[in-house]
Amino acid sequence: MGTRHWLRSDSPTGGRMLLIALSLVAMFASLANSAAVMSVDLGSEWMKVGVVSPGVPMEIALNKESKRKTPTTIAFRNGDRVFGEDAQTLGVRFPSNSYGYLVDLLGKTIDNPMVDLYRKRFPYYDIVEDPVRRTVVFRAGDEQYTIEELIAQLLQVAKGYAEDSTGQLITECVLIVPGFYGQAERTALVSAARLANLKVLQLINDYTAVALNYGIFRRKEINETAQYFLFYDMGAYKTSAAVVSYQLVKDKATRETHPVVQVLGVGYDRTLGGLEMQVRLRDYLGKEFNKMGKTKTDVFSNPRAMAKLFKEAGRLKNVLSANTEHYAQIEGLLDEQDFRLLVKREQFEELCKDLYERVTAPLDKALAASGLALDVINQVVLFGGNTRVPKVQDILRSHIGQELAKNLNADEAACMGAVYRAADLATGFKVKKFITKDAVLFPIQVVFDREGESGTTRQVRRTLFGSMNSYPQKKVITFNKHTDDFEFTVQYAELDAVLRGDGDTLGSVDLARVKLSEVAKKLKASVAENVESKGIKAHFMLDDSGIFSLANVELVLEKTVTKEDEDDESTFQKIGNTISKLFSGDSTDKPAADKPSEEGAEGKSEEESDSGKDGKASEEEDKGKKPAKEQEADEGGSKDAKQETGTGEGGAAGNESGKKAEEGTEAKNATVKPKIVTLKEPIPSKVELTYVAPLEGDLFEASAKRLSALDAVDKAKKRRETALNALESFVIDAQVKMDEEEYASCATEEEIEQIRKRCGEISEWLYEDGSDADAETYETKLEELRGVANEVYARHWEHQERPIALNALKQMINGSEGFLRNARNLTKDTNPEKDVFTAVEIETLEKAIRSTIEWRDTEVAEQEKLARNAPVRLTVKDITDRMGMLDREVKYLVNKLKLWRPKVKPTPPPKPEKTTSGKEDEKEQTSSEEKPESEPVLEKAPEEEADGTGSEEQTIDPTTTQKEEKGDHTEL
C-alpha cells in the first residue's frame, strides 16, 4: 500500500492500538489485492515447483511426501489416477499404464524422430496418432490420452502443491522450457497450461532462468563492464550450454540503471543425457541376465521385467557416481528368478564411451555462436542432475583447462530464477529490476514471390529474426511492389547451421501462411493525385516466451498537403487557427515547412529506407543488433535530418522571412514546401499455421471435459476414502474407550452396551457388505454412531474441563476482590479529591462478587453429589457465563477509572495595581472574570500535538514497499 501513517510516539496506549489496527488493515488489503504465483521446472524426470506469496520469500513447494522434487510420472489403473512416486511404483507392476519422460513429445507429430526414439526406449507403450492433429496419443485399453492432457494433469499437481504451500489460489505461472523448443512445442505447452486452468506469464528457457538466479544473488558484483559466464547443463533428456553476459545498463527512457543478463550463444544436444545412460545400463543388465540362463524366457520380451531393470539401472547409475563398484540386485526379476550382478564404474563408462565424446560439443557450439573465446569466460558453471557424474566433470575440466564452478543448486537453480521472474511479471509484487534478454535459436524468415521486369516470378527471402538476435522484439517487412492480393510464408531459416543434420526433430519448417486481401481495393480507394502508396507493411512480434506472431498488416500512404488545400479551410477553422497562433506566439508569416509533422517525417524516413531496393521487401531492422526501440524505424518518432532543419530552400526562406518581419519588412517571394502526411489503412489478413496445430476449439473443449471427469472421479474417491477412514477410526476409538475406566465411568451400563453393540455391527458390515459402499453411506453410519457415543464423550469432557474452568473463576474472583478493595478508597466519602466511584457502584460490584461465590459453592456441592454417569448439573458453559457477568461489572469500573480526570481549581485573578492606564486593568479584570469557575483539562488528540515541535514523529508504513512506486507490493 502506498499510504503512510504518522503516529505520536508519546501516546503509548492509543498509538499502539492504532498501529496494530493499521497493520491488520494493511495486511488484509495486501492479501485482497495480491495473489501468489508459481514457477514450474517441468523436467523430463523430475518436477520442481517454486512459489512466492505476499509477505513470504521465494521458496520451493513441498509435495505430499514433504520432498522438494516430484517424479514427472502419471499412472492409471482401474479408474484410479496417481502421480509421482506412487505412479513410479505402479509403473513397475504395470509399465504400460505409467507414463513418464513426456515433455519432449510435446508438439511432435507421430513421424518425428524423437517419437521413434521414445518408442525404442520404452517399447511397452501403445502410442497411436491423433486423427486430426497427427500428434502423440497414449492408448491404454479403452482410454486414450493426448500428450497435452497428460502434461496438463502434471501441471495441476504442481498447482496443488503450490496452493498447499502458500494457502492461496494459484492462477498464474512461469514455465521453464528447453531452449531448443520450437514454435510447436511452446504453443503446445501453453495449451496444456490452459487445460490446467493456469495463465502462463512467460515461457523462460532453462539456461536463462539459471543465469537470472545466478545474477540476482550476485547483484553487487555486476558493474558497467561486461562479465561473461558459461552455464553448462546435463539433464535426464538433453545437454545444453549457454554463454551469457552480466552488465549494468542505463535505460534511455527512464534514465535508471539496471543489471542485464543477455544470452550471447547457445549449444545443445537433445539426446545426450542421463536417460540414455540409464537405458544403456538397463540393456546391459538384461543381456547379462539372459547369459545366466536362469530361464528360457527372453527378459526383453517381458514389459514388467524391463521396467524392473530400468528402475534398478537408475539406482545403479546414481550409486556409481560416488562409488567405483556396486551390485545390481532384483528379486524375482523374471519367472521368480532373482538377479544379482557386480557392476564396476569402468564398465558403465565403457558402455557410454561414445556419449562422453559428445560432452564438450554443446560448450563449443555456444562459444562459437557467441563469438567469444574461452579465455574471456569468467567461469563455467554447472547445473542439472547429471553434471554430478565424475566422468562428465573430468572431461569438461580437461577441456576448459580450469576448475568448474559448482556454487549453484543443480536441481533448483532454474526454478528459483523462474519464480523471481514470475514475481516481477505478476501484479502485487515489487522486485528489484533485473532485465533478461534471451536469444533466437532458430532464425525466422519471410518467403514470398515477386514478379520481375521480364515477367518471370522468383522467390524472395527476407530474414526477420536472425540467429542469436535478442528477444522480445518487433520487426516490420515492407512489400512496396504488390498491387493485388497476395500471400507469403513464414519459415525457419538457416537450420543446417543450428541443427547440423537433426532438422527433422524440429518438425515442419513452415510456420505460417499469410493471405492478404482487399489490397487492390484499398489502393484504388486511397491513391489519388496527391496521395502516393508507400507499400504494405507487415508487423511481426517475437514475445518474451519466444512465440512468433503477426501483429497487423497495413497499407502506408503519403498525402501531399498544398497551400490550396489549406485555403479550403472553413471560416471557423481559420478563426480557430488565428486565435491559437495569437496565444502561442506563432507568426502568421512563418511557413508550414518549418514544422513538419511526425507523420511527414515518418513517411520521408520510410521512402528513403525503401529506395534502392528495386521493389524488394525491406527488412527495416539491423538484424536485431540494435535495441528494440531503434529497430522499429518504420513506426515513426524519428525525423529526417533535412526536415528537422527546415528541408532545403523552404527552410532557408522561412528563416529569412522571420528576420525581415522583425525588421518591419515582408518576405514576398518565399518558397513553401508542401507538407507530407502519412496515412495508414489496415489490410485484412488470414494466418494459417502450418506447423503442428495448437490444441484449441472443439478439441480443447473435449480435452477439458475429459480432465474435468477425471478430477470429479478423484474428488469422489478422496471423499470416500476420508469417510471410510473416519468411520473405521471412530469405531476402533469407541471400542477402546469403553474399556477404559475414565470413559466407562461416564456412561451407564445400557449406554456402554449400546455403543459396543453398534460398533460391532458397523465393524462387521465394513468387512463384508460395506467394503464397496459410497462416501454418503459411510458418512451416514458415522453420524448414527456419533449420536450414540457423543453423550458419553460430552460428560467425560465436562468432568475433564470443569476443574480448569473453576480455577479460572477463582482467579477472577480474587482479582475482582482486590480491585474492590482499591475501589473503596476512590469514593467521595473516603477520598474527596479522588471521587471516582459512587457508593452504588461499589455496592453493585460487591453484590456481584458475593453472589458469584455463593453460586459457585452451591453448584459445586450439588455436582459432587452426582455420579459421573449422571446428567451434568454444573457445566463449563455455566461457569464461563458467570465469569462473563463478573467481568462486565469489573470492566465498567475499570473504564471509568481510565476516563476520570481530577478537577482543577480555578486560579484567582491577581489584584489590580495602580497604573497610568485604567482601561488596561479593566480589560484584564473583565477577561479573568469571563473564565468559568472550573475548566477541565482535556488530553489533546494526536493530530493536534503533531505539529513538528516538542514531539518525535514515528513513520509507520504497513508494507515493505520501496518509495519509488506506489501500490500493493511485496519486496523481494
From TrEMBL:
InterPro entries given in the database record: ATPase_NBD, Heat_shock_70_CS, HSP70_C_sf, HSP70_peptide-bd_sf, Hsp_70_fam
Highest taxon of source: Eukaryota
Region of interest (Disordered), residue spans: 562-674, 902-972
Localization per record: Endoplasmic reticulum lumen
Keyword 4Fe-4S belongs to the record: no
Chief place of localization: endoplasmic reticulum
Stretches with biased composition (Basic and acidic residues): 587-643, 657-666, 911-943, 962-972
SUPFAM superfamilies attached to this UniProt entry: Actin-like ATPase domain, Heat shock protein 70kD (HSP70), C-terminal subdomain
PROSITE patterns attached to this UniProt entry: HSP70_3
Comp. bias regions, Polar residues: 572-581, 951-961
GO-annotated biological processes: endoplasmic reticulum unfolded protein response
Keyword Chaperone attached: yes
GO cellular component: endoplasmic reticulum chaperone complex; endoplasmic reticulum lumen
Gene Ontology terms, MF aspect: ATP binding; ATP-dependent protein folding chaperone
Signal peptide coordinates: 1-34
Annotated keywords: ATP-binding, Chaperone, Endoplasmic reticulum, Nucleotide-binding, Signal
Recorded family membership: Belongs to the heat shock protein 70 family.
PANTHER family: HSC70CB, ISOFORM G-RELATED (PTHR45639), HYPOXIA UP-REGULATED PROTEIN 1 (PTHR45639:SF3)
Name of this chain's protein: Hypoxia up-regulated protein 1
Lineage per the UniProt record: Eukaryota, Metazoa, Ecdysozoa, Arthropoda, Hexapoda
